[in-house]
Design a protein that fits this description.
Alpha-Beta Plaits; about 60 residues
Length: about 60
């Protein structure tokens, strides 16, 4: 599984950070940082990352094909 992030759509709600803090964080300015950019999500956090994708209130996250 890989994740696409639409940084222009992200509004910094932080729902993804709450769901999968090993993969996502917000910087001091509220900008999203995705630590797995272009990488496969490790099996151990895949469920949490999938929950983050599903929970994003502005659909800034999507599962890559």
């Amino acid at each position: 599984m890989k994740v696409n992030v639409d940084y222009n759509r992200c509004e910094g709600h932080g729902v993804c950070v709450a769901q999968a803090p090993d993969a996502f964080e917000l910087d001091d300015d509220g900008n999203l940082k995705y630590h797995l950019e272009g990488q496969e999500v490790p099996t151990g956090i895949e469920t949490a990352v999938r929950s983050a994708v599903d929970a994003c209130p502005v659909a800034a996250l999507s599962e890559a094909p």
